[in-house]
């Protein structure tokens, strides 16, 4: 599953996947937070807290169930994903095939999310409070983030965390980085843990840069600030398709040699 990385910073293609998905996730999360009523569409715990707070206020309007509905949609996506995996998993031609397909779908989803969000903003459909009108846009974003988390979990570095940036990442980063001072471990163990800590730092840094750059761009171009994330995703998806093609060619040649 390892492949030649672009540089020493991205030690393997799996690291590239994890970091690029974290960058893109930061881009989409900041836009959803700013324009979709603080809906962090990749973090269900935050939506649970917002939903509980709204319900505790006693309101029965759409705003009070908005964040809860996001969680329900996420759960439905998880169920549908499992059904799709059970049905089509055997049709993949290489380990990279599934990632290439998933990222291609996300290219289309991100384009639709950006254009639809920009249109809704331009025509005043994104008001001060959430309405059922925004749910198609939110659902597209949720599907995108679900696929993104899938790609990180299965195509990334397979470290203890699956999503891009969660609380655990910060704890793991600090504990691993400061393991260099643990005299009870040998040098090799300390170096391995230190590199794992650097990996978590890279995850956080890519997420931070993606969110910051997109937030700055959004001041001037709104939803079109996601154009940078879309460009990165398209270019990286083409790279993954190329890797899949080489793996498939090598597999076909291997089968041909064995058959002859």
Can you tell me about this structure?
It holds the Pfam family DUF1275. Keywords: Membrane, Transmembrane, Transmembrane helix. The chain has 260 residues and is mainly alpha-helical. It has a domain at 19-158 and 220-259. It is built from 8 helices and no strands. α6 (167-177) packs across α7 (187-221). The longest helix has 35 residues, at 187-221.
Note the total helix count. Answer: 8
Order of helices and strands: HHHHHHHH
What is the residue-averaged pLDDT? 82
Q: What overall form do the CA principal axes indicate?
A: globular
Roughly what percent helix? over 70%
Structural class: mainly alpha
Which stretches are poorly predicted, pLDDT < 50 over at least 5 residues? none
Q: Indicate the radius of gyration in whole angstroms.
A: 20 Å
Number of strands: 0
Keywords:
260 residues, mainly alpha
Describe the structure concisely.
The chain has 260 residues and is mainly alpha-helical.
Task: Detail the topology: elements first, then pairings.
Elements: H1 13-35, H2 44-56, H3 62-88, H4 97-122, H5 135-155, H6 167-177, H7 187-221, H8 227-259
Helix pairs in contact: 1-5, 1-7, 1-8, 2-3, 3-5, 4-5, 4-8, 6-7
């Amino acid at each position: 599953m390892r492949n030649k990385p672009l540089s020493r910073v991205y030690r393997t293609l799996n690291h590239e996947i994890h970091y690029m998905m974290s960058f893109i996730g930061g881009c989409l999360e900041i836009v959803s937070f700013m324009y979709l009523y603080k809906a962090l569409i990749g973090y269900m715990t935050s939506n649970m807290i917002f939903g509980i707070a709204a319900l505790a206020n006693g309101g029965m309007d759409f705003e009070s169930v908005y964040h809860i509905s996001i969680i329900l949609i996420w759960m439905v996506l998880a169920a549908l994903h499992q059904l799709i995996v059970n049905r089509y998993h055997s049709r993949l031609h290489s380990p990279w095939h599934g990632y290439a397909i998933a990222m291609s779908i996300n290219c289309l989803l991100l384009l639709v999310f950006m254009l639809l969000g920009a249109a809704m903003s331009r025509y005043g459909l994104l008001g001060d409070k959430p309405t059922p009108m925004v749910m198609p846009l939110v659902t597209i974003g949720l599907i995108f983030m679900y696929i993104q988390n899938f790609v990180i979990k299965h195509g990334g570095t397979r470290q203890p965390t699956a999503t891009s940036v969660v609380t655990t990442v910060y704890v793991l980063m600090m504990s691993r980085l400061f393991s260099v001072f643990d005299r009870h471990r040998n040098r090799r163990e300390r170096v391995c843990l230190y590199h794992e800590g650097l990996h978590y730092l890279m995850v956080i840094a890519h997420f931070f840069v993606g969110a910051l750059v997109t937030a700055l761009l959004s001041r001037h171009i709104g939803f079109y600030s996601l154009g940078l994330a879309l460009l990165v995703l398209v270019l990286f998806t083409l790279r993954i398709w190329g890797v899949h093609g080489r793996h498939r060619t090598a597999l076909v040649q291997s089968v041909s040699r064995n058959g002859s």
